[in-house]
Write a structure and sequence with these properties.
It is a single chain. The longest helix is centred in the middle third of the chain and has 13 residues, at 77-89. This protein is α/β, with parallel strands linked by helices. It has 4 helices and 8 strands. It has a 5-stranded mixed beta sheet with strand order 5-4-6-8-7, with helices on both faces. Strands 1-2-3 form a 3-stranded antiparallel beta sheet, covered by helices on one side.
């Protein structure tokens, strides 16, 4: 439908329609696609926006730099393993809120993927606050 084919292999990078992708682009204001419960959050340099409710759409938006981060409450491995591999290959970070790298079987109130480790840390500290976590534990 979108005429885009992403391929990735651990240690070999990510390709879009056969062309190698570089690092995930930076932005002056990081667009963080996250659940509705976080959209009221005001943090300088971060805008919380709705997800497209489809990993097949959201992960490519992150890889191409339209988004700089994603937050998902559902951690189904079939939804996230391909995207997490691509984000990792491009120098980003995907992990549970406790910092555990995402893998099948990982549990957490949220998976956060970001263009780099510094943004990931900022999001899990300033946006996905301990107060939010206390209200949204599974």
């Amino acid at each position: 439908i979108h005429e885009r084919l992403y391929t990735a292999e651990r240690g070999a990078g990510v390709r879009l329609n056969g062309e190698a992708l570089g690092p995930i682009p930076d932005a002056d204001v990081a667009a963080f696609a996250a659940p509705r419960s976080l959209r009221h959050t005001v943090v300088p340099g971060v805008t919380v926006v709705p997800t497209r409710r489809s990993c097949a759409i959201d992960y490519p938006l992150l890889l191409e730099g339209t988004l700089q981060a994603l937050g998902y409450r559902s951690l189904n491995p079939w939804d996230h393993l391909p995207g997490v591999l691509m984000v990792d290959e491009l120098g980003g970070r995907c992990a549970a809120l406790n910092g555990e790298p995402f893998a099948a079987g990982v549990t957490s109130p949220m998976l956060v993927c970001a263009r780099d480790a510094a943004l990931w840390q900022r999001l899990v500290t300033e946006v996905v606050t301990p107060e939010w976590r206390a209200d949204h534990l599974r």
